[in-house]
Amino acid sequence: MCYQTICKEGSEIMGHHAHPEVSMHTHPLSDYMECIYEENWAGVADLMVSSSEKLNKAGADFLICPDNTIHQAYHFVIDRSPLPWLHIAEVVGNEIRKNKYNEVGILGTKYLMTGPVYPEVLDRIKIQYQIPDSMIGEEIDQIIFNELVYGIIKPESKRLFLETVGQLKSAGCDAVILGCTEIPLIILPGESPLPVLDSTRLLARAALKKAFED
Q1: Which of 90, 139, 163, 201 is the most exposed place for a label (fewest CB within 10 A)?
Q2: Cα–Cα–Cα angle for 178, 180, 182, nearest 5°?
Q3: Does domain 88-198 correspond to CATH entry 3.40.50.700?
Q4: Fold of 2-87+202-213
Q5: Do domains 2-87+202-213 and 88-198 have the same CATH topology?
Q6: Nearest to residue 23, comparing CAs of 49, 60, 66?
């Protein structure tokens, strides 16, 4: 979705079939998860730096990663990377301020929902936030890793996601962060009880903006 957004919306700006040049490198998810299961964020950073070095050699000017969870290793990466990165939570935070939201829900992997990636940004910009309770969070995590990463969309899983967003709305949230690349596959436009902050597409649009600025 990130790549498609860059290509589609890039052509709307640059002309028919045109978009900024894009290079991509991805280590297997299994390599990342081996580190994440052990909370070895330095190991996650090593993988991210490895990708940044390869993309630097390919001629990239800056980097993005639509995977929210691995941004927990960002602090280990930024001083080692040969190229600058756009931070996905910073991009989402800018959108929250633009829309003047006061309190947001956070959906993603259990590592993302209970981790510091969004709280660090939201605390800095003085935005309240909520996550689902731990039992629902575990269910969401299992759906992401066992279904969504394989493109499987089950009606009961969609219902759980939408009900969870409804609960966040009832608890006082005025928007919800889709803090996982795959969640926009299951929460489609117009279905959510709350306005969505689609981190994947917001990051792609931020990358487009930076590409044109540069």
Answers
A1: 163
A2: 100
A3: no
A4: Rossmann fold (3.40.50)
A5: yes
A6: 60
